[in-house]
Amino acid sequence: MMEATELNGVNGHTNESNGAPQSRDLAIALEPCDLNSIPSHIKTISELGGRLADGDLQVRLKLLKSARSLVAALETPRETMIKHCWAQPAAFTAIEIGIQIDLFKVLARDNGSSKKAASVAQELGVDPNLVARLLRHLGAMNYVKEAGPDEYEPTNFSTALNIPVVGDGYPLITEDVRIAVDKFPQFLKKTGYKTPSDALNSPYQYAHGSKLNMLEHLELDAKNFQRFHNHMGAYRQGRDSWMDPGFFPVQDRLVNGAKTHSGAAFLVDIGGSLGHDLEEFARKHPKVEGRLILQDLPSVLAQINQLDDGIERMPYDFYTEQPIKGSSATHIFGSGARAYYMHSVLHDWPDDVNRKILARVTEAMERGYSKLLVNENVIPATGADWQATAEDIMVMITSSSLERTEGNWRDLLEGAGLKICNIWSTDNALESLIECELS
Ligand SMILES: C[S@@+](CC[C@H](N)C(=O)[O-])C[C@H]1O[C@@H](n2cnc3c(N)ncnc32)[C@H](O)[C@@H]1O
């Protein structure tokens, strides 16, 4: 019995009532998480490393995945825990402070030549001790490069933080989103651990003590509103784009057969934010005829500083009648668009809200001519990417929504009177384009 008591302490093992062996041995926290898998990760990394120079995005992504798996296997549970609880929050806040005080701008000056923390601090007019400590942690985390004692160089990451679409995510999360993330466990405890399903009674409203949806709430603070839209403009940069060759056959599926009379609408981007997707389309497909129409709420369109001249801004609330509408009586003017497009719009909402949004699109579509293109994550049955799974949790918190599997998309879209013609995806299934027509 004496032995059993000791084993139930810090160093022991015990069996819980369900019979599952529960290790309470601290040693498990001090050994690599998965020693056995390490040689195979290293083998994959060395094979992929040799192919990186080809510039193939998929090779880089596979290498990154293997490198993450290697780190996870090498770290001990204690190290991973300290990383989550100390290192990452400390890095996040150091980055945000750095953005606030222009630290990364100063660091990037003179072609990124190495700089003493004290001279950076002097230029910023900030306490040198504070700057040195912030830089030391960012150096330890590889976000800036240590060049000597109290001396640092920028990295591509730290320099990129000076671009608003990259840097704006940090204060946005701190000032608006994190409170909801932090209160999510409390919300679930109160609601009996049921998956949130009401867009207006999500952890976001609970945390903010508000009845507004996230966008309406963000709108109360002009800075955060702008940051959110900048953040939206950044998160998909560098990912496969459906407008590129080898993804979705734009010419075959959209351009061929599109009406070209004056006034014909080619692509309507519903909830298109600041117009980044339509600008990309205009740049990549400059010869395509027909109107490119950007629809979003008036307050969002008012945030646009610059937009390609060929794109029309059309203030529009997607719960109301779609102005670009087909009808059997009007085949020249007032015809439906060749394609209505929604990118990361439906993932913001649970199905009941999406059914209302989709009803406005389907009633505007011209049968046999218009398409609906839905650019979203389609979560695979296994091997889902961490970006998609992270987004899934974030939209659950901010609007009781979800990132959808193919089955989830079929239920939603087919239930709304649409037929899925094809789901176009890339290798890693990070970006998908669901091509639909009226059923
Ligand atoms: C997650 S963002 C996606 C933006 C953009 N499509 C992209 O992929 O970057 C959702 C967009 O839906 C817009 N939105 C939200 N409610 C809307 C409404 N009632 N009518 C029109 N657009 C709306 C937001 O303003 C925002 O631009």
UniProtKB/TrEMBL annotation:
Positions of region (Disordered)? 1-21
Composition bias of kind Polar residues appears in 11-21
One example of a Gene Ontology biological process annotation:
methylation
Alphabetized Gene3D superfamilies for the sequence:
Vaccinia Virus protein VP39, Winged helix-like DNA-binding domain superfamily/Winged helix DNA-binding domain
Q: Which UniProt keywords apply?
A: Methyltransferase, S-adenosyl-L-methionine, Transferase
InterPro entries of this UniProt entry? COMT-like (IPR016461), COMT_C (IPR001077), SAM-dependent_MTases_sf (IPR029063), WH-like_DNA-bd_sf (IPR036388), WH_DNA-bd_sf (IPR036390)
GO MF, one term, reads: O-methyltransferase activity
Q: Which PROSITE patterns match?
A: SAM_OMT_II
Q: Give every O-methyltransferase C-terminal domain span.
A: 261-418
Tell me where on the tree of life, at the top rank, the source sits.
Eukaryota
User: What protein name applies here?
Assistant: Hydroxyindole O-methyltransferase
